[in-house]
C-alpha cells in the first residue's frame, strides 16, 4: 500500500502527460479555459499544455497523499514533506509562467535535498540515516553504515545532475520517460547493489559445534 502511495503521483504525472501530449490542441484549449486565471497572460500554448496539466495533477496527488496519511493517522515521512514543498513551489511557477523549466528542475532539487539530508545526518548529527531506518533489522559494522550513507549522498547528487542533463539535451517526452522509468530503474539497481554489499558484511549466524547435543539429549 505504501509503495503504491509513493509512486502514485509519479504515475499520474506520466499518464496525464502522455494523454495530453497526444492531444496538444485539446490540452491547450482545456488548460486555457480552466486554468487561464492561474496563468500569466491567461493563455496556454499547445507545446506547454501537456506538462502544465501533468504538473497540476501531480500537485493535487501529492497534497491528497499527505492528507490521506494524516487522516489515517499515519506518519508523513520527511522526504514526502520535502517533495510536497518542492512540487508546490516549482509546480506553481510552472503553471503561472507556463514554462516547463521549473517542473523539470523539481526532481533535481528533490534528489539534492535527499543528498543533503543524508549528509547532514552524518556530519552534523553524527549518525547515519540509513542505519536509523534499518539498524533495528540489520547488524553491520559502523564503518559499513558510514560507507552506505556516503553512497546515498553520491547517488542522489549524481541523479540530480542526470535529470538536468536529460531535461536540457532531450525532448520533454524523453525527459518524462526518464523521470518515470529511467530514474526508477536506476534506484532499483542501486538498492540491489547496496543489498549485495550489505549481505557481504552481515555477521554469520553461529552454529553449534559438531557432536553437540541439544538439551533434550541429556535427559536421563
From TrEMBL:
InterPro entries: YciB
Subcellular location: Cell inner membrane
Regions crossing the membrane: 48-69, 78-97, 109-130, 150-168, 174-193
Keywords recorded for this protein, A-Z: Cell inner membrane, Cell membrane, Membrane, Transmembrane, Transmembrane helix
Bilayer topology term: Multi-pass membrane protein
Keyword Transmembrane helix part of the UniProt annotation: yes
Protein family: Belongs to the YciB family.
Cited PANTHER family: INNER MEMBRANE-SPANNING PROTEIN YCIB, INTRACELLULAR SEPTATION PROTEIN A-RELATED
Its biological purpose: Plays a role in cell envelope biogenesis, maintenance of cell envelope integrity and membrane homeostasis.
Xref: NCBIfam families: PRK00259.1-3
HAMAP family per the UniProt record, alphabetical: YciB
Name the record gives this protein: Inner membrane-spanning protein YciB
Organism: Roseateles amylovorans
Lineage: Bacteria, Pseudomonadati, Pseudomonadota, Betaproteobacteria, Burkholderiales
